[in-house]
Amino acid sequence: MEWSNKSVVTEFILLGLSSSWELQLFFFFVFSVFYGAAVLGNLLIILTVITDSRLHSPMYFLLGNLSFIDVCQATFATPKMIADFLNEHKTITFEGCMTQIFFLHVFGGSEMILLVGMAYDRYIAICKPLHYMTIMSHRVCTVLVAVSWTIGTLHSASHLAFTVNLPFCGPNQVDNFFCDLPLVIKLACLDAYFLEIMVLINSGLLSLICFILLLISYTVILITVRHRSSKGTSKALSTLSAHVTVVVLFFGPILFIYIWPFDSFPIDKFISVCFTVFTPFLNPIIYTLRNEEVKAAMRKLRNRFLSSWSPEQNSRVCFFWFLLIFPRHLLDF
């Protein structure tokens, strides 16, 4: 893409989460741990789904793709945020700012559609179990993933198409740790009311439609589950609780931001942290906390590595595994 910036602004200043040096050092260590755990946890799920043949099913195929999006979601801005905690001047180039906006909406839009696809998978599995493998074929799963990425990319490109051409003639301070579209548009030297409406319709409408579809699908599933056996109900509710929790964690911050996209609130930065750091960190924990199949596959994967490595290597792997598994035991407790 050829950047066509017609403004005098060549870089933006990111105000970050705090101006206190002590707090920035604290945030540096805290977010380094959360980011590392988010990436490692999601990569562990991807590796487990790929290597264990018992997890080669539509549900886990979609889960593996969700984990991949979460890795991307956690990586588009968090490493720079962590590095900026140690820098006095937190700046980002115009091109870097536009890139962050692009990837934020690509990954966010893709995850919305993928969550709808996962809800559809659970609907077929619970409401039409005899036709599950016929309807949810590998081709259908691949199409769902492809559609999610396509819609996410088109959704993001529609934002970027007008943002790169906005005139920025002076103000260049973004009151966040990454370039968020509503905050950047407010810095443009023109009446951005029409652009604000476009952003509200584009992002807000997509978020609202996906959220309503998810509510409808899970409501139908829960009504269906009530008429099943207690054993089947327990297992279905355990799976659904994980899905619903992830949906709430993901759509809660998004809906809050895009209900009032161009009004600033003190909680906005916390919501941004939840969306980019905490949600990717919590998703692997939520999906493995009550899923015995995934936990058994992870133990099998761990034992396979331990049996093939030296004692010194085993001790390092055990420590690494402890860091990944320990948060789940805390939640269980």
* Count of separate structural domains: 1
Q: How many helical stretches?
A: 12
Profile the largest sheet: 3 strands, mixed
Given this structure, which CATH class is correct? Mainly Alpha
Low-confidence spans: pLDDT under 50, at least 5 residues?
A: 1-5, 325-333
CATH architecture: Up-down Bundle
User: Could you give the order of strands across the largest sheet?
Assistant: 2-1-3
Describe the structure.
By secondary structure, this protein is mainly alpha-helical. The protein has twelve helices and three strands. It starts with 10 loop residues before the first strand and ends with a helix.
How are the secondary structure elements laid out?
Layout: E1 11-14, H1 21-51, H2 58-75, H3 78-84, E2 91-93, H4 94-127, H5 132-135, H6 138-163, E3 173-174, H7 181-185, H8 193-225, H9 230-259, H10 268-289, H11 292-308, H12 311-332
Parallel strand pairs: 1-3
Antiparallel strand pairs: 1-2
Helix pairs in contact: 1-2, 1-3, 1-10, 1-11, 2-4, 2-10, 4-6, 4-8, 4-9, 6-8, 8-9, 9-10, 10-12, 11-12
